[in-house]
Structure formats: structure tokens, C-alpha cells
Amino acid sequence: MRNFLITIGAAILGQLVAYLIIQVGPYVIPPPNGMDISTHHGLYAAWPDVEPKHFFMLFLGNAFGSFLAATLISRFTTRRILSRTLLVGLLYLFIGIYHANVDPAPWWFKVSDVCIAYLPMTILGYFFGIVLRPEKKSKCPILSYGIF
Questions:
Q1: Mean model confidence pLDDT for the chain
Q2: Hey, which end of the chain has fewer CB within 10 Å, N or C?
Q3: What is the count of structural domains for the chain?
């Protein structure tokens, strides 16, 4: 039950952090002058003036949300660590594919977002979380040197 709650909590926290980064994006990189990008109609109207820099925070939010969720899962769960991490990464990937089909964006952003921001960042977060795990002392001398 503890591992299940950690997995669900990490998935929710990763999505929350991704949402917050995306919401802060227009304050860091302002949208084109006079454009309201808070609605789909405003986004379509601003489309001719949108530059590649406007997609940076969206990509960063997606990538960091996946990374954070995977890191938390691999750091705090005790069983089936890789499968739990990949399950959440696949969930994020499916959400990203849905948004790539629904939201307006150039094809290069959709491809890079789906191919880089979800599963690769999930795998990177998995390894980062494994590194952060507290070391357990092993009675086997081979295992205590970190070979396996």
C-alpha cells in the first residue's frame, strides 16, 4: 500500500510541478505583444507571431515533471521500482501524445516533446533516484564494493 501511495503521489506531484512551470512560462518568456494565449482562440490568433523560444517553458515543464515523478518513485518505493517508474512515464507519454494532437504547435516541437520529454527523462529520473537511495550494508564483500 505504501508503494502504491508513493507512486500515485509522485505522479500527481510531477504533474503539479509541470503545470506550475507551464503557468509561469509567460512571465519568464512573454508571449507576442498584445496576444492572449490563455485560451485556444487566443493561441490560434497568436500563432503567426509565436517563436521557438515560446515553447521552451512548455518543454521544460513536461520534462521536469516526468523527471521529478520518476526520481521520487525510484527513491522511495521498495518493490518493482522500474516497472512503477515506467508506468508513470508511459502515462505521461500518453498524455503528451494527446496534447500533441489537440494543442496547436509546430511539428518539430511535437516530435521533440514526445520523443525527449517523457520516457528519456523518466529513465534519467529513475537512475537519479537510484543514486539518491540510501546505501544498505551488505554482508557479501562483492556487493559492498558496489560492483553489482
A1: 86
A2: N
A3: 1
